[in-house]
Amino acid sequence: MIKIIIFSTVSALIFISYGIFFIKNFFLIKDRITLNYIECGLFGIIFLSFISLLLNFFTALNNSTNNIAAIIAMLIIIFSKNINYKIIKVSFMAGCISSLLIILNNVNRPDAGLYHLPYINIINDEKIIIGLFNIHSRFGHISILQYTSAIFKNSLFGTNGILIPSALISSFFILFLLDFLMNIKEKILLTEYYLTFFLLIFSLYHFSNYSEYGNDVPAYVYFFFTIIIFYKIKNFKKENYIENGKILITSTFVILNKIFFFLIFLIPVISFFLIKKKINYLKYRALIFSVIFILLWFIKNILVTGCVLFPIESTCIKKINWSNLNDVKKLNISSEAWAKAWIDQKEPRLPMEEYKSEFKWVKTWETKHLKKILEKFLFFIILNIFIILIFYL
Fold this sequence. Notes:
The protein is mainly alpha-helical. It has helices at 2-26, 37-56, 63-79, 85-103, 110-125, 145-150, 164-182, 190-206, 216-232, 241-257, 266-274, 285-305, 325-339, 352-355, 362-392. Helices cover 64% and strands 0% of the residues. The model has no long low-confidence stretch (mean pLDDT 78).
């Protein structure tokens, strides 16, 4: 228990360190008094994920590489003179929460053994392997989180280090919500209290089972984080360029965790359209960072699968030797069919392509999947109604 807390606390400090560097250099915040160290932790996760992906084009994320990444984080803290009681406090609290999540993890997670952990192992042993998708089709469904996890396998943490980043994402977010609630100065903003309180209850309930995280929970966390940043913007003037940049970067990170969240890009688009003064986009660091991050991810996808967006056949490059369009087409059909509960059909089962067409899947899907969705969200629907009654009646 003590060992896990120490490792998680050190990991939180690493993320905060990179977050401080990232925020200071990309958002040009020089005054450390204005820094929110919990928010630094969340942005540190994004920046270190970017570094992990970039490094894997040239080298494996082995112990030597990852040790250097951890040492650099400590040097950033030391030489920037940012080490203080508050940073240690935030790191320790995040470390304790993530340790609790990991310790209470007691359910087998098939996806982890099927392709998450094997891919992380490949990242630790090799640089990006061309055509890797042909060895295991699931390697085309990788999230940026696998790179974040891979860089935490070092000489101090060992292989257990790969478990820490996912838990810390939720831990930082829970602390962020608590801090946000306690520091809302205008008490009349009941809607703001309500939104944050609702997300806090949702997070404590829905993110408490670390065994079910997969790649979904980190995407949800940064999706909610993006919404909160957008909500905090009171007017869209020049002084809010920082918040708009944060929205763009967090939205990018959401997409790289789960491509199905692509509609989140509507938030930064709306935000930029509402800005009253023009932005010099060529000098806008948040936009440059986001574009480079996405381009690196697309290049990685092409190298691994032959497709820009896997398994969308229209994005595949036919002339590439390792591109396997027949397998991509089959996977596209099977992915959609499984998402629509094809496996839950009663015998005799319809073929996948027939099952997913003309709404033949709805009856099967609603008997199991819809029930699960209602079980998860019924509590929050009731809570939602209850809070509205208290606040507005």
